[in-house]
Amino acid sequence: MKMKAALLPLAVAAAIFAVSGCSTMQIGSRSAKTAASGSAGGANSHDANKELAHCDAPLGTIAVTEDTASPWYNILANQYKLGPTTPVLKLIIQQSNCFVVVDRGRAMNNMMGERALAQSGELRGSSNFGKGQLVSADYSLTPSITFSNNDAGGAGALVGGLLGPVGALVGGSMHSKEASTLLTLDDNRSGVQLAIAEGSAKNWDFGGLGGVFGGAAGGIGGGYANTAEGKVIVAAFVDSYNNVVRAVRNYKAQHVAGGLGTGGNMAVQGSAQAAAPTGNGMSLYQAQEKLNRLGFDVGQPDGKLGPHTRAELKKFQMSRQIPATGELDGATVEQLSR
Q1: Could you tell me which residue, 204 or 65, shows the higher pLDDT?
Q2: DSSP letters spanning 161-211
Q3: Per its UniProt record, what Pfam families does this chain match (predicted)?
């Protein structure tokens, strides 16, 4: 019994080293990287994640906008002790070559500061900080973490059953971490949402070792546990971004009859779109849309029977050899419905 008791610490130590490896400094360690690795310079990238989507040419310029007042960001910063997601997202975007990134974060303050210095006359004359040089952001990408589970299940029973008492100690400290993220792509000129994509990832870590072994050994597992949440969140964002790229590669704009932002086609009672003066099943708004499609230009549909609409109605009626009343009567609706 004494011999077995003496051997237990050695077995525990062996288990620790099997999990953690040697604690030597290694520059560029693969284990310290996230799913967003390497670098990007212009259209070139180095050591990018092989699973990251890539475009042959950029689709436009983009700015990453992070809502620091949202609940998920508060959890990210205060509970997980993680920083903004914008730096890693900008790396992912530039490596993909699907968009050209323009900075609208804190670096923007520096840009404006340099311009203020130029305007004050403090900069050299050759500095060339005149107006009209900033590039507009065609699109905005907004990140959100919709779900992050710090303890999505342990593996103690499985490992313990395979490796015995020491295995149970190590296995009991293994926990999976899951994250689900969303990326929203908006058109900055119109405010229209172009694409939205969910992403997810799952990872295993050994976060409980510090509590199990304590003392000097505690730092081994605890240090990795402090970064495991960040790694799985980054992996989920890579998945989200890949899904955004898949959505926009074959982008097809949504079309609303009459144009975007003109009232829509789900009209409520009393609105111009819902008005059907003749009670024949076609509103004047719908008739204006059909006349435009047929080449009788009534201008922007508004559901009103103005002089221009009356004139085009008469032209249409004459072309169909029906009485040119300038009204949306039954005979006219019948012809427009064909």
Answers
A1: 65
A2: HHHHHHHHHHHHT-EEEEEEEEEEEEETTT--EEEEEEEEEEEEE-TTHHH
A3: PG_binding_1
* Angle, CA 207 vertex, CA 201 and CA 211 arms, to 5°: 160
State phi, psi for 29 to the nearest 5 degrees: -65, 130
Is it the case that residue 207 has pLDDT exceeding 60?
no
Residue 101 DSSP one-character state: E
CB 201 within 8 A of CB 247: no
Dist. CA 184–CA 108, nearest whole Å: 22
147, amino acid identity: F
Among 157, 198, 201, 156, residue whose Cα is nearest residue 175: 156
Q: Give the DSSP letter string of 10-25.
A: HHHHHHHHHHH-----
> pLDDT of 313-323, one tens digit each?
999 999 999 99
d(CA 53, CA 40): 14
Q: How far apart are CA 92 and CA 52, in angstroms?
A: 8
- Phi-psi category of 292—alpha, beta or left, where left has phi over 0 and alpha has psi -120 to 50? alpha
| Residue 308 · residue 298 · CB < 8 Å | yes
Give the single-character DSSP code of 47. Answer: S
Assess contact for 278 and 287: CB atoms under 8 A. Answer: no
Distance between CA 329 and CA 279 in Å, rounded? 9
Q: Which residues contact 158 (CB under 8 A, 6 or more apart)?
A: 171
pTM over 0.85: no
Q: State the CB neighbour count (10 A cutoff) for residue 38.
A: 13
Q: Which residues pair with 204 in a beta bridge?
A: 176
Beta bridge partners of 179: 148, 201
DSSP 263: -
CA atoms within a 13 Å half-sphere pointing along the CA-CB vector of 204: 10
Give dist(CA 23, CA 237) in Å, integer.
30
User: CA-to-CA distance for 111 and 134, rounded, in angstroms?
Assistant: 9
Largest CA distance in the chain: 112
